[in-house]
Design goal:
Strand order of the largest sheet: 4-5-3-2-6-7
Number of helices: 9
CATH class: Alpha Beta
Mean pLDDT: 90
CATH architecture: 3-Layer(aba) Sandwich
Largest sheet: 6 strands, parallel
Distance between the termini: 31 Å
């Protein structure tokens, strides 16, 4: 009862403390399994709770006018997990991607859905649902939801290097033409993502786990680690993370103005 009264007030205070809103937030959604264990529930229920929380966070992001959200949903390392858990996760992913095509918010907000990662490792039925969601939302340009599946940060850089070398071999570029802009063009299989402004990791883990290393570490983004497991992540936690980003902007610029960033 007390929290329902105090949380909205605290949210308003935090909102005042966030004059700078990041354009691109990347989220490592950690703690679904530990949340389920804490509640004495099957792991699948923890993953379902995490998926539901993701939908809420997307609504908050739209409310705050955050244009790009990238979710670290399944890493290449996650393939070492129990096969039954992987099967459950892929079934949840498939259901969510199928619902994208019917979700009125996608059309209302103008959300484009994109997947980054090694598609060769994604099961055909899930890949089909992904491609349908991408095709259905391809015309939207207001907001971008990027989902990292079968994703590894070092792998994406290796794949980009291979792609550039093929282009050099075929005469499209000279070796002297290789620069940071060209590398970014070849990351994520051609899906263009802007630099990451803020990484959030839940679950009380203090590491970025090979997530978007070029766009995040290469651009020295702000990082916010927090204790709540992903299904317990609140709007207050999101605002606290944005406050860290906003403070970083002001410490760097020294003017309170964020060049090229959206302010409110």
């Amino acid at each position: 009862m007390f929290r329902t009264l105090i949380d909205p007030l605290y949210e308003r205070i935090l909102r005042i403390q966030c004059p700078h809103i990041p354009r691109h937030i990347a989220i490592i959604q950690d703690g679904n399994r530990r949340f389920a264990k804490l509640q004495n529930l099957p792991r699948r229920i923890g993953h379902l709770a995490g998926a539901d929380r993701t939908e809420q966070v997307l609504d908050w992001a739209h409310e705050l006018n955050i244009q790009y959200i990238t979710l670290y949903s399944f890493s290449t390392e996650n393939f070492s997990r129990d096969p039954e858990e992987i099967k459950d996760l892929f079934a949840i992913f498939k259901e969510k991607f199928e619902r994208v095509c019917e979700d009125p918010r996608v059309r209302r907000y103008g959300i484009r859905v994109q997947v980054v990662g090694d598609r060769s490792r994604i099961p055909p039925d899930l890949l089909g649902a992904i491609e349908r969601a991408e095709e259905k939302t391809a015309q939207y340009r207001n907001y971008y939801l990027n989902v990292a599946l079968a994703y590894g940060g070092r792998n994406e850089i290796v794949n980009a290097a291979r792609s550039i070398l093929r282009d050099v071999r075929d005469g499209r570029y000279s070796a002297d033409a290789i620069d940071t802009d060209l590398i970014e063009e070849h990351l994520h299989a051609g899906i263009q993502l802007p630099p990451v402004d803020l990484i959030i990791r839940t679950g009380n883990e203090w590491r970025t786990s090979n997530f978007l290393p070029w766009l995040a570490n290469g651009h020295e983004c702000a990082v916010y680690f927090c204790a709540p497991y992903w299904p317990m992540f609140r709007k207050i936690d999101l605002l606290r993370a944005i406050r860290v980003y906003s403070q970083r902007v002001e410490s760097i610029t020294g003017t309170g103005v964020s060049p090229g960033k959206k302010t409110c």
